[in-house]
Structures are given as structure tokens and as C-alpha cells.
Amino acid sequence: MPWWRHNGRAMAKPRARSSAGFARATPGGRNRKGGGAPLRATPVITIDGPAGAGKSTVARELARRLGYRLIDTGALYRGIAWRVREAKADPGDEGALRRLLAGTTIDLRDGAVLVDGRDVTGEIRTPEIGELTSRLSMLAGVREKVTPIQRRLAAAGGAVLEGRDTGSVVCPDAEVKFYLDASPDVRVVRRQRELEARGLPAAPEEVRAEIGRRDRQDRERTLAPLVVPDGAVVIDSTGRSAEEVVRLMLEEVARHGCCTRS
Ligand code: DC
To answer: Is the CB of 221 within 6 Å of ligand 1?
Structure first.
């Protein structure tokens, strides 16, 4: 079985878009052939997939090797959940949530999540915030707040976005898209290790249940559900180290004509 699949089926390896690689921005910032959308000087790479598939680790390393910015889109949703919890707002009252969010600024700066200017990075990785985030991310008012921020952060290119809808909704025009998956058992073990490393040990059954709930919410929601984006290269990280996955991704990126740093 080849390492890449598309929409779950093995298929011919996708061809690079052009032999010249990524379209280069012209001085006017427009497509050389005239008209069309502005082109980015450096590409956008998206990585989507379920919790525990290893997205964060490989996205961070891929961004580092390419010298790109990392845009952790889930961190922005977690920042929103942090704000909702802090305000003791009712997640079931969408009107109140919209009003709360209208007066909230949220940003990513040098890997830190800023909510109304306050760095909440260290407070958003708990299972409690994870579950509230998954619930809130189903709501139109929340996605309408966060998606434009993610697009603004990605607009200049030279970015790796990781999340659930980055290749399907946030940046459907991304030059390279990945969908990273892994077997349920491996995802449970990785998530458990991640929690342990944060000083939040949890039993495997608890972690399995948490992942199952989040999977259902992320895949079954009406708005921007977790899907394999059109044109994405699917990588199964079961039995592969992060380094192997990053290498596969770098090969794919290189096939699109992008330079790597190391
Ligand atoms: O990747 P993460 O575990 O930090 O994401 C937390 C939640 O945020 C996830 O359960 C669903 C939501 N999310 C989303 O809806 N869209 C994204 N692009 C990223 C995350």
C-alpha cells in the first residue's frame, strides 16, 4: 500500500501543479497570465486530521524545517473556550456568545495564544477546555469569529496550518494539503502521553472516551466538519515516527517546488 491515499482509496500519485513548482508572485502580486487571484510568494501548507493523529508534532517540525510560521488553528478555538469559561457564559446561548465574542480579541503571536492581549497558552490544553472547545466549534458564531483570523494569519503564505478544516474551509486554495490519521489505539496512547507530559495523567479508558466524543463532534457537525479536503495527501501515521511523517511531507512539498532549509 503506498503511503499516500486520497479519500481513503489508493490512487495515482498526484502530479505537481507545474514543473516550475509554486506559482511565484509577480511584482503586481497577480497571476502572471493576467487577472486571477493574487498569488503568494511562499506557499500555504495545511494539515488536518483527528485528535491524537500527531498533527501538532509534525506541523511544528515541518514549519521549523521550512522556516514557515506555524498556525495552530485549534489553539484559537481553545482561546475562545477559555474566554467563554472565564466569562461563565452559557455555551447554549448563541446570542450571548456572539455578544461576548464581538468584544473579544484573539490572536496568535510567536506561538502564544492571546485573548484580549493576555497570554493564555498555558491554560488551554486541559481536557475540560478541549471538550468545551469541541462543543463551541460547532457554532456558526464561533466559526465566523475564528475563520477570518486564521485566513488573515495565513494570507501572506509561508505558513503551516494545522486543525480540522484548514484545507477544506480556511484555505481551500492551499498549495499543499495533508490529512493525517492514525489507528484509534495509537491515537489513545499518543494523547495519553501528551496529557502526562503536561502533568495531567489519565486512564486509557478515559482518554479513549474523550477522543471518541471529540471525533463524533468534529466529524458530525454541520459546519466545517472534519473531512479529507479535496486534493489532500492522506498519511497514516500508525507505526511511523514523527520524523518519518515529516520526511514524507517534505518530499511532497519538494515535489511542488518548494525549498527546504534542512
Ligand atoms: O487540535 P485541537 O485539539 O487543539 O482542537 C480543539 C478543538 O477545536 C477540536 O476538537 C475542534 C476544534 N477545531 C476546529 O473545529 N477547527 C479547527 N480548524 C481546529 C480545531
So the answer is: no
Inside any domain, residue 10: no
Ligand 1 atom showing the smallest separation from residue 170 Cα:
18
Query: Does ligand 1 have an atom closer than 6 angstroms to the CB of 253?
Result: no
Q: Is the pTM of this model over 0.70?
A: yes
Decide whether any atom of ligand 1 lies within 6 Å of the 166 Cβ.
yes
Please indicate whether residue 22, judged by its CB atom, sits closer than 6 Å to ligand 1.
no
Does ligand 1 have an atom closer than 6 angstroms to the CB of 163?
Answer: yes
| Packing angle of the helix pair 73-86, 94-102 (nearest 10 deg) | 110
Residue nearest to atom 13 of ligand 1 (CA): 74
pLDDT in tens, 28-58: 333 333 344 446 778 999 999 998 899 999 9
Least Cα distance to 56 among 161, 174, 204, 133 occurs for: 161
Query: For the domain that residue 60 is a member of, what is the CATH number?
Result: 3.40.50.300
* Burial class for 231, CB neighbours closer than 10 Å (0-12, 13-18, 19+): middle
Our count of domains for the chain comes to: 1
The residue written with cell numbers 485566513 in the block is 151
At 108 the three-state DSSP class reads: strand
Residue 204 forms part of a structural domain: yes
Residue 104 in domain: yes
Q: What is the CA(18)–ligand 1 centre distance, in A?
A: 33
Answer yes or no: is 38 within a domain: no
Which domain does 161 fall in, by range? 44-255
Contact 204, 188 (CB under 8 A): yes
